[in-house]
Amino acid sequence: MLGLRRAAAALLPLRAGFPAAAMSTLLVSQPRYAWLRELGLQEENPGVYNGRWGGRGQVVTTYCPANNEPIASVRQASLEDYEETVKKAKEAWKVWADVSLEMGKIFVEGVGEVQEYVDVCDYAVGLSRMIGGPILPSERPGHALIEQWNPVGLVGIITAFNFPVAVYGWNSAIAMICGNACLWKGAPTTSLISVAVTKIIAKVLEDNKVPGAICSLVCGGADIGTAMARDERMDLLSFTGSTKVGKQVALMVQERFGRSLLELGGNNAIIVFEDADLNLVIPSALFAAVGTAGQRCTTARRLFLHESIHDEVVTKLAKAYAQVRIGDPWDSDTLYGPLHTKEAVKMFLDAVEQAKQQGGSVVYGGKVINRPGNYVEPTIVTGLPHNSPIVHTETFAPILYVLKFKEEEEVFAWNNEVKQGLSSSIFTKDLGRIFRWLGPKGSDCGIVNVNIPTSGAEIGVFIYKLFPTGGEKHTGGGRESGSDSWKLYMRRST
């Protein structure tokens, strides 16, 4: 695991160069992106790893969201590749189980995500010495009761485009120290990242003469994901993605009485009371709403403002939005990058139009930015009722719906009325209100914040690894990384 930690650090992009391949139009062959070559990526890359690299499926090209130019391509897994890889992963697990325990985002966010993987490897190393159950005396003389924990076997990990490194790290590091083998399918649009990460892991495993299939990879689309969900050899399936697809995955896994870990969507809210410190509110709301261009599961999508401060906060927030530096993700001064795909841009425009049709007013943004790539303006919408259909719809884009409220009781209810229950936050100085917010009649979310944003808090959670992170209701109920979430990756007997 320490080897994986060092290897994960190697994912941090380097600026040194290789000469560009003659006449190539792919970014992987251009000097500016020479670090992709250092990660072992070529113009066409095999997308299957099970101890050996391969792939017999279709070739999928990955595009840069900042300019929509092709980066490189990955040959995806066929169903035959999937079958072969599952068999090898199950065989590799027999070896690993006996070992004793010991996306288009801006540059700074990409570095931070890789650091998450490094951190969770650190955490997992220590956690490996703390796994176990109690031993209690029995009422029968000469007997004892033991809670025995064993690995589940093969853990399937399906990750989303927005955190293509960290989410795999949260799952695989814990799964491995529990004695499991892993089979990873990343998002088809981030296959190059999956290949690059697996190349680093494969070297660590091979250098230590451990079967590479312990950390297998199958790049592919819905056909591979469906096969994983229905496969009884998949002892646990961890899925991170949309609520819609997560529901389909859960039903397929449950049909075979399998075990799943779901990390799905979030329609997250910030509530600002009249006594809040606005110098804290404005940057927090800005960060929560536009960080990663609104493409985090913990992004703030609803901002409830007490009616007495509504107009003041909207004015100050719009001024703050105007100062956000939008640009090339590789520029260290850039705070806001592109959306992931052209389809995401269309969803953004559709949501803005629906908001207008339902009575909302766009006070900032709302348009596509006239430049190459998938850039849209961070957007503020006011004037909608709290229960408008578009307000209750999670749109993976930088759209913030600003809503008025009068009383604590009503706004707590409005926070909870959406189907998802991932992250939430209030800004107030009232200690009584804070504890009501944390209590049984307060927020029903899995992450409950006070005077901090809805997003970003999860970074601190994962660095210190004391508490698990996840959500309730249509967010799926799954928990990853902290506290006793390791139990999800194991089976127990008494």
UniProtKB/TrEMBL annotation:
Keyword DNA damage carried by entry: no
Signal peptide per UniProt: 1-22
Gene Ontology MF terms: aldehyde dehydrogenase (NAD+) activity
Positions of the catalytic residues: 263
Enzyme Commission number(s): 1.2.1.3
EC class (word): oxidoreductase
Name of the protein described by the UniProt record: aldehyde dehydrogenase (NAD(+))
Organism: Chroicocephalus maculipennis
Gene label: Aldh7a1
